[in-house]
Amino acid sequence: MSFTLAIVGRPNVGKSTLFNRLVGKKLALVDNQPGVTRDLREGEARLGDLRFTVIDTAGLEDTTDDSLQGRMRRLTERAVDMADVCLFMIDARAGITSIDMMFAEILRKRSAHVILAANKSEGSAADAGVLEAYNLGLGEPIRLSAEHGEGLNDLYSVLMPLADDFEEREQESAPETDVEVSEEPENDGAPVPTVAKPLQIAVVGRPNAGKSTLINRILGEDRLLTGPEPGITRDAISVATIWDNTPMRIFDTAGMRKKAKVQDKVEKLSVSDGLRAVKFAEVVVVLLDAAIPFEQQDLRIADLAEREGRAVVLAVNKWDVEEDKQGKLRALKEAFDRLLPQLRGAPLVTVSAKTGRGLDRLQDAILRAHDVWNRRVSTAKLNRWLSGMIEAHPPPAPQGRRIKLRYMTQAKTRPPGFVVMCSQPDKMPESYSRYLVNGLRDDFDMPGTPIRLTMRGQG
Ligand code: GDP
Ligand code: GDP
């Protein structure tokens, strides 16, 4: 019915304050519930029309012994595993500390959805800390003030599309493992909407790449336009459209509108606006200018989209003015492989937003990328495949003890995430994980999508 949000971060950043604000008076402490430790508080949260479960990793504040870091890590990992979404909170007034970096590392590896929140952001004393937070590599921070109740709109905007996703996913999956007892009526008898949910895309790229032209071209042919819809956030709006029989919601960014006003901030602005659009999207279209493709800014945004776990399509625009199309295409593919190895196999299509050429291929690529991003591989197939992979290339034996891979399963989709149960998970070298990820990509036809692989010990 709904999703679980874990609030994680080091002590004193304001987690409990946010927890209390989200749970409000209807605080329902369930610490006698099996499986929930004393250190994890759980409550039913309400934010606008969203209802979800929130977990707070409280109870660490009074721990002063040396093992604090270890406990914090274990507790956080537990919370992350229980949650669908993690809200990672930092203290914008204090700036980023090494413990924050440790948390970021855990979250990058372990969590499918991370929302970065810079708390204590009321007033300008927080500005430097908010900027620093970009360095965590977890996308754009939301400015929050848990104490003053500021920034909750932005939190809502980020959670809302995710909430839709989880609802959709639950409708798809059979309820055989998740037995949830609820005393409340699940829904007040309202009819379940049957309309296909629009595919959410974001078009990102440098100023002048042709984003506005492309979006207008897509919308131009369509009379069913239902946007722009104000109020999703200040900075990102979306338009819904039917593009060749496929409902799509295109996230548009304010940077495209505002760019003329702040010339010297153009680069900064468009990148951070792009970041925001990426958060909303299922498929991110990175639009390049054929004349100047793969500039630093393009690479950054493509990398970000991958790290955020989005399906990525590269579109090279202004193809109409290209003279040596063959040669150029070869050069583009070569540059793509070299500069963005993390997006191996992602589609690269050439388009002209101006003339409309190539837009059918772009749409195909978007649909295919979305499909791959949603792919699910059965556990039986995975384990057959895994034994083949082990046979072909056994895992290493650090200090003479061979790492044993016992079992593998797909834990999530969107993007595909796999868990391998093994001995000595901490000793597993990156190169072996990469071997498995590339194998998954090739053998199960999952080009281009980010693939998450987690090694986990028993118990
Ligand atoms: P936790 O231990 O990480 O859950 O942090 P708490 O919620 O206990 O908050 C730690 C301290 O930060 C408390 O003194 C709070 O009053 C304060 N705090 C929480 N949120 C804010 C905020 O938005 N602004 C400011 N200035 N202080 C805050
Ligand atoms: P944005 O800043 O990314 O939104 O870029 P715009 O859509 O405003 O386009 C920037 C410039 O590139 C404008 O002058 C457009 O007319 C031009 N442009 C956009 N797409 C194409 C294209 O496919 N071919 C050519 N030749 N010019 C284009």
UniProtKB/TrEMBL annotation:
GTP-binding keyword on record: yes
Keywords from the named record: GTP-binding, Nucleotide-binding, Repeat, Ribosome biogenesis
Alphabetical list of InterPro entries matching this protein: G_ENGA, GTP-bd, GTPase_Der, KH_dom-like, KH_dom-like_a/b, P-loop_NTPase, Small_GTP-bd
Residues holding GTP 1: 9-16, 56-60, 119-122
Positions of region (Disordered): 167-193
EngA-type G domain: residues covered: 3-167, 199-374
Biased composition (Acidic residues): 167-187
GO BP: any one term: ribosome biogenesis
PANTHER family: GTPASE DER
Family from the record: Belongs to the TRAFAC class TrmE-Era-EngA-EngB-Septin-like GTPase superfamily. EngA (Der) GTPase family.
Name recorded for this polypeptide: GTPase Der
Organism: Salinihabitans flavidus
Gene expressing this chain: der
